[in-house]
Design brief:
Length: about 180
Protein backbone atom coordinates (compact mmCIF):
# COMPACT_ATOMS: atom_id res chain seq x y z
CA UNK A 1 0.00 0.00 0.00
CA UNK A 2 2.88 2.37 0.76
CA UNK A 3 4.37 1.72 -2.67
CA UNK A 4 1.02 2.36 -4.36
CA UNK A 5 0.59 5.63 -2.48
CA UNK A 6 4.16 6.81 -3.20
CA UNK A 7 3.67 5.98 -6.88
CA UNK A 8 0.83 8.49 -7.23
CA UNK A 9 1.66 11.49 -9.38
CA UNK A 10 2.16 14.60 -7.19
CA UNK A 11 -0.55 16.40 -9.19
CA UNK A 12 -3.00 13.60 -8.36
CA UNK A 13 -2.04 13.82 -4.68
CA UNK A 14 -2.58 17.59 -4.73
CA UNK A 15 -5.97 17.23 -6.45
CA UNK A 16 -7.10 14.50 -4.05
CA UNK A 17 -5.85 16.52 -1.08
CA UNK A 18 -7.86 19.58 -2.13
CA UNK A 19 -11.00 17.48 -2.62
CA UNK A 20 -10.53 15.85 0.80
CA UNK A 21 -10.04 19.25 2.48
CA UNK A 22 -13.28 20.49 0.85
CA UNK A 23 -15.07 17.41 2.21
CA UNK A 24 -13.62 18.04 5.68
CA UNK A 25 -14.88 21.62 5.57
CA UNK A 26 -18.37 20.31 4.74
CA UNK A 27 -18.51 17.85 7.66
CA UNK A 28 -21.34 18.91 10.01
CA UNK A 29 -18.92 18.53 12.95
CA UNK A 30 -16.48 20.92 11.25
CA UNK A 31 -19.15 23.48 10.34
CA UNK A 32 -20.22 23.92 13.97
CA UNK A 33 -16.75 24.35 15.50
CA UNK A 34 -16.68 26.97 18.23
CA UNK A 35 -14.30 29.92 17.84
CA UNK A 36 -11.96 28.54 20.50
CA UNK A 37 -11.94 25.01 19.02
CA UNK A 38 -8.63 23.58 17.85
CA UNK A 39 -8.23 21.04 15.05
CA UNK A 40 -5.34 18.60 15.13
CA UNK A 41 -3.85 18.22 11.65
CA UNK A 42 -0.65 17.00 10.03
CA UNK A 43 1.46 17.80 6.99
CA UNK A 44 1.31 15.08 4.34
CA UNK A 45 4.47 13.28 3.23
CA UNK A 46 5.27 10.52 0.74
CA UNK A 47 1.98 10.68 -1.14
CA UNK A 48 -0.30 11.08 1.89
CA UNK A 49 -3.40 13.21 1.61
CA UNK A 50 -2.08 16.62 2.68
CA UNK A 51 -4.48 18.82 4.68
CA UNK A 52 -1.91 21.64 5.01
CA UNK A 53 -4.17 24.14 3.23
CA UNK A 54 -6.21 24.20 6.45
CA UNK A 55 -3.23 25.88 8.15
CA UNK A 56 -3.69 28.86 5.82
CA UNK A 57 -7.18 29.51 7.22
CA UNK A 58 -6.78 32.44 9.60
CA UNK A 59 -10.15 31.65 11.23
CA UNK A 60 -9.12 28.10 12.14
CA UNK A 61 -6.86 27.22 15.06
CA UNK A 62 -4.75 24.25 13.99
CA UNK A 63 -2.30 22.22 16.05
CA UNK A 64 0.33 19.93 14.56
CA UNK A 65 1.71 16.77 16.13
CA UNK A 66 5.15 16.67 17.71
CA UNK A 67 6.62 13.19 17.84
CA UNK A 68 8.98 11.72 20.37
CA UNK A 69 9.70 8.04 19.72
CA UNK A 70 7.92 5.76 22.20
CA UNK A 71 5.69 8.50 23.60
CA UNK A 72 2.22 9.84 22.89
CA UNK A 73 1.88 12.71 20.44
CA UNK A 74 1.97 16.28 21.65
CA UNK A 75 -0.11 18.78 19.66
CA UNK A 76 1.20 22.33 19.29
CA UNK A 77 -0.30 25.41 17.63
CA UNK A 78 2.79 26.62 15.76
CA UNK A 79 4.36 29.95 16.60
CA UNK A 80 7.14 30.29 14.08
CA UNK A 81 8.97 28.02 11.70
CA UNK A 82 8.55 24.28 11.48
CA UNK A 83 11.52 21.99 11.99
CA UNK A 84 12.44 18.53 10.77
CA UNK A 85 11.02 15.88 13.06
CA UNK A 86 11.68 12.18 13.17
CA UNK A 87 10.27 10.01 10.40
CA UNK A 88 10.56 12.76 7.75
CA UNK A 89 7.83 14.93 9.24
CA UNK A 90 7.76 18.70 9.80
CA UNK A 91 6.61 19.88 13.20
CA UNK A 92 6.44 23.01 15.34
CA UNK A 93 9.58 24.05 17.15
CA UNK A 94 7.57 26.21 19.53
CA UNK A 95 4.01 27.32 20.15
CA UNK A 96 1.02 26.68 22.37
CA UNK A 97 0.60 23.06 23.45
CA UNK A 98 -2.95 21.66 23.45
CA UNK A 99 -4.01 18.55 25.34
CA UNK A 100 -4.90 16.00 22.62
CA UNK A 101 -8.23 15.18 24.27
CA UNK A 102 -9.16 18.89 24.12
CA UNK A 103 -8.92 18.96 20.32
CA UNK A 104 -12.30 19.16 18.58
CA UNK A 105 -11.27 17.16 15.53
CA UNK A 106 -8.09 15.25 14.75
CA UNK A 107 -7.10 14.55 11.15
CA UNK A 108 -5.31 11.21 11.13
CA UNK A 109 -2.92 9.97 8.42
CA UNK A 110 -2.93 6.29 7.58
CA UNK A 111 -1.58 3.54 5.35
CA UNK A 112 -4.85 1.60 4.99
CA UNK A 113 -8.34 1.64 6.50
CA UNK A 114 -11.54 -0.33 6.24
CA UNK A 115 -15.19 0.72 6.25
CA UNK A 116 -15.53 -0.24 9.93
CA UNK A 117 -13.10 2.52 10.97
CA UNK A 118 -10.09 0.30 11.53
CA UNK A 119 -6.79 1.74 10.35
CA UNK A 120 -3.21 0.75 9.84
CA UNK A 121 -0.72 3.51 10.48
CA UNK A 122 3.00 3.52 9.93
CA UNK A 123 3.58 1.16 12.85
CA UNK A 124 4.89 3.45 15.58
CA UNK A 125 1.55 3.56 17.44
CA UNK A 126 1.52 7.32 18.01
CA UNK A 127 -2.19 7.92 17.35
CA UNK A 128 -3.31 4.76 19.18
CA UNK A 129 -1.15 5.65 22.19
CA UNK A 130 -2.34 9.26 22.21
CA UNK A 131 -6.05 8.48 21.90
CA UNK A 132 -6.20 5.19 23.80
CA UNK A 133 -8.81 6.67 26.14
CA UNK A 134 -11.17 6.91 23.13
CA UNK A 135 -11.18 3.20 22.42
CA UNK A 136 -14.61 1.61 22.14
CA UNK A 137 -15.84 -0.06 25.28
CA UNK A 138 -16.41 -3.78 24.56
CA UNK A 139 -20.10 -4.54 24.12
CA UNK A 140 -21.08 -0.94 23.29
CA UNK A 141 -21.19 0.87 19.95
CA UNK A 142 -20.07 4.18 21.45
CA UNK A 143 -16.75 5.57 22.54
CA UNK A 144 -15.77 7.90 25.32
CA UNK A 145 -15.94 11.67 24.74
CA UNK A 146 -13.04 13.32 22.98
CA UNK A 147 -12.07 14.60 19.56
CA UNK A 148 -13.66 13.33 16.39
CA UNK A 149 -11.01 11.15 14.73
CA UNK A 150 -11.09 11.69 10.97
CA UNK A 151 -8.90 9.43 8.83
CA UNK A 152 -7.67 10.90 5.55
CA UNK A 153 -6.60 8.77 2.61
CA UNK A 154 -6.84 8.11 -1.09
CA UNK A 155 -9.72 5.82 -2.01
CA UNK A 156 -7.18 3.19 -3.12
CA UNK A 157 -6.14 2.87 0.55
CA UNK A 158 -9.60 1.66 1.64
CA UNK A 159 -9.58 -2.12 1.90
CA UNK A 160 -12.32 -4.66 2.53
CA UNK A 161 -11.34 -5.59 6.09
CA UNK A 162 -8.52 -5.11 8.58
CA UNK A 163 -7.96 -7.13 11.73
CA UNK A 164 -8.27 -4.74 14.67
CA UNK A 165 -5.98 -5.23 17.63
CA UNK A 166 -7.19 -4.53 21.19
CA UNK A 167 -5.09 -1.34 21.36
CA UNK A 168 -6.26 0.04 17.99
CA UNK A 169 -8.33 3.20 18.25
CA UNK A 170 -10.97 3.26 15.49
CA UNK A 171 -11.75 6.22 13.29
CA UNK A 172 -15.08 8.04 13.54
CA UNK A 173 -15.05 9.15 9.89
CA UNK A 174 -12.94 8.29 6.87
CA UNK A 175 -12.58 10.91 4.13
CA UNK A 176 -11.31 10.16 0.62
CA UNK A 177 -11.46 11.97 -2.69
CA UNK A 178 -14.48 9.79 -3.51
CA UNK A 179 -16.55 10.49 -0.39
CA UNK A 180 -17.14 9.98 3.32
CA UNK A 181 -17.36 6.70 5.18
CA UNK A 182 -18.97 6.69 8.60
CA UNK A 183 -18.34 3.35 10.32
Amino acid sequence: MLARRRALDPEVVARHSETVVQRIRSLPEFCVLADEAVVGAYLGIRGEIDPSSLLEDSLLRTALPVTTPGEALRFVIPDGALVDGPFGTREPDRGVEVDPTDLAIVLVPLVAADRRGNRVGHGAGFYDRTFASLARVPGTPDRRPGPLLVGLCHDLQVVEELDARPWDVPLDVLVTEVGLIRP
